[in-house]
Amino acid sequence: MDALLDNALNLVRRASKSLDLDKRFPGQSLSQRLEVPDKIIAFRLAVQRDDGSIKVFMGYRVQHSDALGIYKGGIRFNPDVDLDMVKALALLMTLKTAVVNIPYGGAKGGVPVNPSDLSVTETERLVRKYVHRLVNDIGPNIDVPAPDMGTSEREMAWFYDEYRKHRDIARGVVTGKPIDLGGSLGRTQATGRGVVCVMLDAARDLNLRDYKVAIQGFGKVGSHAARKLFEEGITVVAVGDITGSIANRHGIDVPALVEYVARTGGVKGFAEAEPIEDVLTAPCDVLLPCALENAIHEDNATKIQARLIVEGANGPTTPAADAILQDAGVVVAPDILANAGGVIVSYFEWVQNREGFYWEEDDVNARLFALLRKAYVDVRDYALKHKSSLREAAYQMAVEKICHAMMARGVQ
Ligand code: NAD
Known about the structure:
Elements: H1 3-18, H2 21-24, H3 30-35, E1 39-48, E2 54-65, E3 71-77, H4 83-99, E4 106-111, H5 120-134, E5 143-147, H6 153-166, H7 187-205, E6 212-216, H8 222-231, E7 235-241, E8 244-247, H9 254-264, E9 274-276, E10 286-289, E11 308-310, H10 319-327, E12 331-333, H11 335-338, H12 341-355, H13 361-386, H14 390-409
Parallel strand pairs: 3-4, 3-5, 6-7, 6-10, 10-11, 11-12
Antiparallel strand pairs: 1-2, 2-4, 7-8, 8-9
Helix pairs in contact: 1-4, 1-14, 4-14, 5-6, 7-8, 7-12, 7-13, 12-13, 13-14
The structure holds nicotinamide-adenine-dinucleotide.
């Protein structure tokens, strides 16, 4: 089994055990109902290449749970995508929407493909075929996808347009759309800004002052987190991505780095910083892993210098690393809380689509930060009360809430 799925299932099992679900709700099999997705959709995608040949891909959509609301979750285009990964990410979505109190369930989709192997027209055909296959399983009141790794507002625009050919009420079928097609102001930046919002509150609770931040990943999450930190006057001392890691102990000029990465494709070679071996183990007070799953593992966890880790990526810390960090007194703000900013503003986008009334960016941000701050305080207080880690607290709160909804609804 995929490590990400194994880890997520183990965390749910541990939360179910701590909550004593089997004793409190005898015979209800709540833990198993959470472990097994509501629906798994796997399908063939035959796509015509520009030279006329046909390439066959697999496509997946896993609808994990709609106990708390309609299915919601991104679509990943990445060569590592497989069914287990999509199952794991769908489960994380169910937990995430529960923790931040938005009226959604969880889902995820994906295609095992390297987006850079496809031309723009081939990518468009792939997206349209994906929608065509799923048209009866998605919809503004059923299941609402969004961007994830390897997809962006460009793919969401094609997604909306293809769905619009089949159904008349279509805007809310997908979020993360371009603004002109009903996207929300602040959606692109939301996950990164949300990571920083959670970081500020957690750092305050730890009494960290004049702290220095390192960021792994400079994509949609990491680069917007870096910009927000720069705006807040907080020093970013190290950044890493797939091309390498760089550091400047006096602070990285984030706008200059954004411009450099847009031009060159990665942080490697940025002149106003030194190359370093690994951003994860760079000297810093706060670490934001915003790149990929299982980045922090038992071999590098002992070398981490940060006192606070805020997980921008999904599943960046393995359970073994989590235990090492906990023993070392490092506080970890977990993914299902810390990176929920994207799905929160996706929810706002969906609400605006339904209202046909669009909000100013300041309103979007104010509502985003209010929801995240409340979720952080809830999780922190639960952790203090139950003497648990923030991760255990977030998982237990989410599982409890979902189980209550399942019990209230009956046999689901
Ligand atoms: P992205 O593709 O825009 O950026 C990924 C970044 O990670 C890039 O800078 C890339 O160079 C870097 N990277 C990839 N492999 C690496 C490696 N081996 N070592 C170091 N760096 C590496 O993706 P994204 O949307 O920023 O997503 C990043 C993570 O955040 C994923 O786990 C994703 O599921 C999660 N996430 C994203 C959103 C969102 O709104 N985009 C929301 C919640 C969670």
